[in-house]
Design brief:
475 residues; Rossmann fold; 10 helices
């Protein structure tokens, strides 16, 4: 029988043994962690399975059709790798083959997008957390997407895929291209092009990954990556704006490796988007009417891919091949040159957002040559109201009074605007509104809004309007 003193000594000895064992295990864990840290930081290269030559950034599943015939050429005959980023799951609109709507429809369209990509051999497909936004104003889309969050996600994917070339939507407001989500995808891609190589941006992504028990998975261990070139495309409603602005790739050429036209390869991919007209494409393929179909959706697959040259950080001509000048191993980060903002010395009037946003945005990202590709224009449904946003700047030390006058097309009813007083060194925002005719009028409807201060005209803002009898996204 153990005495109380022996029991106390036994407990003390057991505690000492446990402490030693615990200390030894801790040292072993620390040594292993140190080895993991060294291995992660010094020996591992980026995952080669994710490397892409081209990263396509679009807004919705099926948007990729505007570049698919070109992508097929690069994938099958030039042996380039391609990855796709969709900013949304396309949860707006309706389905052509079922009752699904909203988030359920978005889930279906995600699968359709992956199937379409897989038909071209594209395995790496990602979706950002944006929501399908029915608007003509890019700032609405960026607001609903949580702009900063989606930008961070896209920068991460560029650092993962390490593309030489980014292809995306033209970040310019144009009729026919009046879904602001398309433009927002171009805005994000342009911003990410300039930011992904900067180690000071989203730095948590490039901090070495920690393997310690306390900090497990708190940082990501990526590397900065500078894409070399960025190109844009647009829906082909303005055929006159493409000439001389970038390379063009016909869809009717035959792939030497696949023995069908690139348009056929694009159509076969597009057919997977059944909720958005894919069955039309399938019928055209089966009936051998692909090349002469009058269905606008079918025609998208067989149209030439016309690209706008955005920026190149390697030597390349505007109309040179997309991969002209590309350095396979990548290039160092290049800080984008930003032009200083110019201040008006006299009162001035200019068009407001989203057009003013683009004027500022394009210059800030070194693609100011795209600023005048399309003059200010918009689509308005018959019988609805056109709202023209205006900005008036007063750089003077005194208050000024400004009168607005509107030159409008016949049949439009302009809401009168009163004179406005603008404080010194301030900016004034105002909208001119006009009700559209109840019947469809052909051709452009041209407006001019002029501003006068005293007897001096301080500027005129032109905008042209296309009337439509169909569905039109809100301003």
């Amino acid at each position: 029988m153990m005495t109380p003193l022996k029991i106390i000594k036994t407990i003390a000895l057991s505690a000492t043994i446990l402490a030693v064992l615990s200390c030894g295990v801790g040292k072993a864990q620390k040594a292993d962690t140190s080895q993991h840290d060294s291995y992660a930081a010094n020996d591992r290269q980026p995952d080669p399975r994710l490397k892409a030559d081209i990263l396509l950034v679009v807004a919705h599943p099926d948007d990729e059709v505007l570049a698919t015939s070109y992508l097929a050429r690069e994938i099958y005959d030039e042996h380039k790798s391609v990855a796709i980023v969709y900013a949304t799951r396309g949860d707006g609109g309706s389905s052509e083959i079922g009752p699904e709507h909203g988030l359920s429809l978005g889930s279906i369209r995600e699968i359709e997008g992956r199937q379409a990509a897989a038909s071209l051999g594209i395995a790496n497909v990602w979706f950002l957390t944006g929501r399908d936004t029915l608007s003509q104003n890019v700032l609405n889309s960026l607001e609903h997407w949580d702009h900063g969050a989606c930008l961070g996600q896209l920068v991460r994917l560029i650092r993962l895929t390490r593309p030489s070339v980014i292809i995306t939507f033209l970040p310019v407001f144009a009729t026919g291209e009046n879904h602001a989500d398309h433009q927002a995808a171009g805005v994000l891609a342009t911003e990410a092009f300039d930011l992904a190589g900067d180690p000071s941006v989203f730095s948590e992504q490039i901090s070495p990954a920690s393997y310690s028990e306390r900090d497990l998975d708190r940082t990501e261990g990526l590397q900065p990556w500078q894409p070399e070139k960025i190109y844009y495309f647009n829906t082909p409603t303005h055929d006159d704006i493409f000439a001389g602005r970038g390379p063009q790739y016909p869809a009717k050429g035959t792939s030497p490796s696949r023995h069908v036209t690139y348009g056929m390869l694009a159509a076969e991919a597009l057919a997977h988007h059944r909720t958005q007209g894919g069955d039309h494409v399938t019928r055209a393929i089966e009936n051998h009417t692909l090349d002469n179909s009058q269905d606008s959706y079918v025609q998208l697959a067989t149209m030439p891919v016309q690209l706008f040259f955005g920026r190149s950080l390697v030597p390349s001509g505007v109309t040179d091949d997309v991969f002209a000048g590309v350095v396979p191993g990548g290039i160092p980060f290049q800080q984008p040159a930003r032009s200083p903002a110019l201040q008006d010395s006299n009162p001035a009037i200019k068009i407001g957002d989203p057009w003013n946003f683009y004027q500022v945005f394009l210059k800030a990202h070194g693609i100011g040559h795209l600023a005048n590709v399309v003059t200010p224009e918009i689509t308005v449904k018959v019988g609805r109201v056109l709202s023209i946003p205006l900005i008036i700047d007063n750089p003077f030390d005194t208050t000024i009074k400004v009168d607005l006058s509107v030159q409008a097309p016949s049949g439009w009813k302009v809401t009168p605007t009163a004179a406005v007083s603008i404080d010194p060194h301030s900016r004034y925002f105002i909208r001119v509104q006009a009700s559209a005719p109840e019947t469809l009028l052909p051709g452009w409807q041209n407006f001019n809004v002029s501003a006068k201060s005293g007897n001096q005209t301080i500027g005129t803002v032109p905008i042209r309007v296309e009337l439509s009898s169909g569905w039109v996204a809100p301003q």
